[in-house]
Write a structure and sequence with these properties.
about 270 residues, alpha+beta, BirA Bifunctional Protein, domain 2, SH3 type barrels, 2 domains, 7-stranded mixed β-sheet, 7 helices, 14 strands, about 30% helix, binds biotin
């Protein structure tokens, strides 16, 4: 059970929409944002999600004990025009890394471009950053973090859920990492505080100052990766990390390429 009064005191949050159980916090956030009635930033929070969404057609499965929430953010176009919105997922990933790092100080937390956080080589958090049809100044950022919901000890519970063995190979939770249960409210407050700081930096100073911190945590740098770009074309090459605009550099057989958005299909 979350302590809503502690969450309401977080700098980033102007309004909270809390649910014990909800299909998807991002669906709900889209509805509230489109109505125009919510005070922003709005935090939509659920103890349990029954129809969580991932990127594209993916679903997001998380048992109780996970953090599943979405933020509706106001993005003034003069500070963050829509063509720069891909930077938001990068900033969110960085903020989650920084928040989790204080809980596992000796462990390796990395951002996997464009929208995942990895703990010791396994995915611990997914981020879904979405625009809102008809709005140029607000967006929805959905964040799922595996905290007390063990992935290593989980059983399959739903149709379409990945095979357990595959999930254990690629994913983790804080509790899998060190066996310690966490206070979900404190973990969320810390995540919101880190996000608030990085979001303010993005709006006031652009992405370049944040790129320095991102590069230090970039999971893909130096790896050979295959990326599917919007439209379907795939690109294979050595990842050279992100530039000051948050664009990924790739060294391919055809020369240097810059990738602003896409899905990472494989890496080694
Ligand atoms: C991904 O890895 O593909 C992104 C996963 C995003 C999951 C979060 S959980 C909270 C929010 N609500 C959703 O339905 N999805 C996001």
């Amino acid at each position: 059970m979350f302590d809503l009064s502690r969450l309401a005191a977080a700098n980033l949050v102007a309004q909270i929409d809390y649910h014990e159980s909800l299909g998807s916090t991002s669906d709900r956030a889209q509805e509230l944002a489109a109505s125009g009635a919510a005070a922003l930033p709005l935090l939509v929070l659920a103890e349990r999600q029954t129809a969580g969404r991932g990127r594209g057609a993916n679903r997001w499965f998380a048992a109780e004990g996970a953090l599943t929430f979405s933020l509706v953010l106001s993005a003034p176009p003069d500070q963050l025009p829509p063509h720069r919105w891909p930077e938001v997922a990068l900033v969110a990933g960085l903020a989650v890394c920084e928040a989790l790092q204080s809980l596992v100080p000796a462990s390796v937390l990395q951002v996997k471009w464009p929208n995942d956080v990895y703990l010791a080589g396994r995915k611990i958090c997914g981020i879904l950053s979405e625009s809102l049809p008809g709005w140029r100044d607000r967006l929805v950022v959905g964040i799922g973090v595996n905290v007390n919901n063990s992935v290593q000890r989980s059983e399959r519970t739903g149709d379409g859920e990945p095979e357990t063995a595959e999930l254990r190979r690629i994913a983790t939770a804080l509790i899998d990492h060190d066996g310690l249960p966490r206070d979900l409210t404190a973990t969320l407050v810390s995540t919101l505080d880190h996000f608030d700081r990085r979001w303010t930096e993005l709006l006031t100073g652009g992405f370049a100052p944040l790129a320095v911190a991102y590069r230090q945590r970039c999971f893909l740098t130096g790896k050979t990766v295959m990326i599917q770009q919007p439209g379907g074309a795939t690109l294979v090459g050595m990842c050279r990390g992100i530039d000051d605009d948050g664009v990924l550099g790739m060294r391919t057989f055809a020369g240097e390429q810059r990738v602003r958005s896409g899905s990472v299909l494989r890496w080694e």
